[in-house]
Each structure stands twice: as structure tokens, then as C-alpha cells.
Amino acid sequence: MVKFLLLLVCFISIPLWSTDYSVGLEHSESESHFGFGLKSRITIDTLDLSAYYDDFYISAYIPYAKLEGPAAIVGILPTRDRVLFSSNRVDTYLDAIVNNSAASVSNSEVSGLSDVTLSSGYYLNDSLFDNYLLTLSLDIKLDNGDEQKLLGTGSIDYTLKLDWQYYINDWTPSVTVGSVFVGDSELFDSSDYYYTQAGLYYTATETLTLGAGMYLGFLKNDTDIKQLEYSLSYQFSESGLLNLSYQNGLSNTAIDNGWSLALYGYF
To answer: Is 116 a domain residue?
Structure first.
């Protein structure tokens, strides 16, 4: 908790020299069997705070999570990048089924503040590449989530990623590659992994943008995360944006289906 407060104070002090800000509120709901018989339900409400200065930005993502069903017992974190079942977590799940009724397991519930993520990035802009946008960023996932409730990993993780976008009239292809360096955790497997994400966005009107993409996460033991994503963004004012997205999992390590609605304000 002390480390969390120190990092949050550092984040709050940085926007003093920034020129622009954004505040976002996102509500997401998802469900998945994760390869098992019973269904888990995950609800997350996230506060997104960002500050910008020239080509540099810093953000904080503060999630409040509610896990229902087996997710509340084996600690399926509400982040697709960490849905990996070690043998002891499978045993915990099976023991819960044997020692309790299916109804009691399905109705299990935990909620609270989950691990906060701090992010900073730099836009690698250059006049030679007017149609391109490259962004190099670093994410730091903190360990503030309650481990007893299985809302946190108990480790600080680092993600280094590069985003590429190319503007072709009304079309914008996008590719992201990233590497996640996972800290030691007593609850979860702690192997580093990498991922890639590719999407295509279409600007239908001056205010409406449609998008579709696929996420691939490459975990250890040849275990992959595969997930399709669809989005609709509506800019209802110069300083307001509404985003609706839907996710469809293609592997047991991803959610079966989920949706999110986010509202952003820019100042």
C-alpha cells in the first residue's frame, strides 16, 4: 500500500506542467467458462486519468472489480493477460466443486479495488512520416489489489509496447506489439510473455468510427490467448467521446464474451 500511495502521489504531481487532460469512466461486463463447467462473471468499473504535454503522456487506470462464480474462488484476474491456470489453481477449482454445491460455487462473490496500472508514453512523431503514428509506452501494474480476496496478483508487472498506426484516407490499420515482465507472485504463475494486437478502423463520418481487431497473447507452455474485438466510437462534442466495444474469446484463456461502455472528456 505504501508503494501504491507513493507512485500515485508522483502521478498526481506530474500534471502540474501538462497542457491537456482527459478523464474516462468505463463499465465492462463479461462472462466465461475458462474451459470449466461453471460460468464466471466479471464486472469492472474503471477510472481513467490522463495528462498530456507535447508528445508525452501519463495515465492511471484505477479498476474496481466484482468477480462472481469460480472467478471468486480461483482468482481469475479481470485482465485477459493473466488468465492462466496453474495446476494448483485447477486443484483449488476442483476441490471447491467436490466440497461445495455447484450452486454455492456459482454464487460465490468478491469485490473491491483491483491492481492499478500507471502508464507513460511518447509519440514518435516526425514530419517525414505524416501518415504514421508510432507510440512507445511503459505500463506499470501495481500490487495494491487485495490478495486475500484474489483481486490482485501480489506482484508489480511491467509492460513495454510499441503501437503503430497508418492513416489511409478513411481507413486506419493498427498494430501493437508488447512484452510483459511479470514480477514474482505467490498466487499466480510468474513467467514473462509477449502479445500482439492488430486492428482496422474506419471513419464513417466526422464523428463516428468503427473498428475491428484481434488480440493474441503468447503465454508459456504454448498457451495462447485469442480474442476478437469490435468497437464503435462516437465523438458527440469537441471534448466528449463515447466508446462501445464487444469482445469474443476464441480460447479457454479468454472471456467467452463481454462488452464495455466508456465515456471520455478532454480538457
So the answer is: yes
| Grid cell at residue 54 | 507535447
Q: Alpha-carbon distance 33 to 51, whole Å?
A: 38
Q: Which tops the pLDDT comparison, 75 or 172?
A: 172
8-state DSSP, 147: T
DSSP type of residue 209: E
Number of helical H runs and strand E runs in the chain: 4, 13
C-alpha cell at 60: 492511471
- Tell me: the pLDDT tens digits for 119-128? 999 998 766 5
- Look up the pTM and report it: 0.86
Could you tell me which of 65, 67, 62 has the C-alpha nearest to residue 44? 65
Contact assessment for residue 94 and residue 70, using Cβ atoms and an 8 Å cutoff: no
Q: Residue 71 contacts by C-beta under 8 Å, 6 or more apart in sequence?
A: 40, 41, 42
State percent of the chain over pLDDT 90. Answer: 46
**Residue 17 belongs to some domain of the structure:** no
Confidence of residue 28 (pLDDT cuts 50, 70, 90): very high
What does the alpha-carbon distance between residue 249 and residue 133 come to, in Å, rounded to a whole number?
A: 28
Residues 6+ apart with CB under 8 A from 110: 66, 67, 72, 149, 150, 151
Domain total in the chain: 1
Least confident range of 20-24, 25-29, 97-101, 148-152: 97-101
Closest to 26 in 3D by CA, of 265, 206, 266, 263: 263
Q: Given a cut of 50, is residue 138 above it in pLDDT? A: yes
Domain at 86, CATH number: 2.40.160.40
